[in-house]
Amino acid sequence: MASPLAQKLAKALGSPVIGSKPMRGGDIADVSCLTLKDGRKVVAKRPRADQGDTTKVEAMMLRHLRAASDLPVPEVLFQEAGILVISHVDHKGITDARMAAEDVAKHVAALHRVMSTEKKPYGFKADTVIGPLPQKNTPCTDWISFFRDNRLLAMARSCLNTSRIDAAFMKRVEALAGNLPDLIPTHPGASLLHGDLWAGNMLIDGDHAAGFIDPAISYGHREMDLAFILLMGGLDPVFIDAYDAQFTIEPGFKEERCAIYQLWPLLVHVRLFGGGYAHQVASILDRFGA
To answer: Does the structure show a pLDDT above 60 at 1?
Structure first.
């Protein structure tokens, strides 16, 4: 007799599962490709024992992206505590790096044209996650407050509380935070952000993006996503010019704001891995006199 979970899956998916094959996944979940009796394939994600269960939050983020934008993301097919099942996205990897980067740029620019309509536009209706880490999204009326409190200082404090950085390093981050009014805009457009946008979360099929996975969504300055991509690499350098052709990047991004916004993913990596990422944060703090 099928297990209770197998029965639930068969009902939700419209066909029973007849096979399972491990897939390469992220750091926080075991990922499997499930074959259904009717021939379809779906993807199941199960949080690892040493990580928190983020399946409910991930399902909510994917549903929001599908409802609010045209970004190609997997469909949520089933979710309960300990398991998330999403549609399988066929992709064979990059065969034309330049065209793939240009296609990613079109999708990301279109995503960023989705703007918040809330009175407090920066943030989101709920806290989310970036990888295994909590991501605060307390809505704010201005971008400086949101980036300072919910991103920069929140993650730096998490690094401090887990002994990834010391008190002196924290004071340097706080000093930079105090200078943010001179470094980033107060009221940029509040765009819908993927939030964890790097090549590993883009499913490329030849010369185009077939899907985007593992979001960490919020509404904020669209340059956050661009800085993330430029930090993590994995796309042809034509990406940034292709994006600019779709949605003009304001002056000063490459010169200053890119580095400021890269502090966020760098601090996430400090919190997760420590090591050399703290040196990269220190270099940016040096650059801005903090």
So the answer is: no
